Amino acid sequence: MKLNLPTAIKILLAILFFLCLLPMPYGFYQLVRMLALVGFALLSFHANQQGKSTIMIIYIGLALLFQPFFKIALGREIWNTVDVIVGIGLLISIFIKPKVNVV
Question: Keywords in UniProt for this one (predicted)?
Fold first, then answer.
């Protein structure tokens, strides 16, 4: 596993999402939402640079979901589920090799 910027962002975001399962001060959750917005925006930019439009759209959707300006009220249990699913998805995406189409 090579530690490049997208990998580091994914690891950091996954750790932050897992920490959201603990009782933390409200400011921590605000910080996580802001870092998630920036992190997913950077990941979408990187995916766009590599021509991975489907992944780019997923990262844009996640950036919109976690953005701190217009909060989506899902309740603590649902947010915890979202945090776990997205955190696990980010970690899995580090190890999955993209398919290469050879013509």
Answer: Membrane, Transmembrane, Transmembrane helix
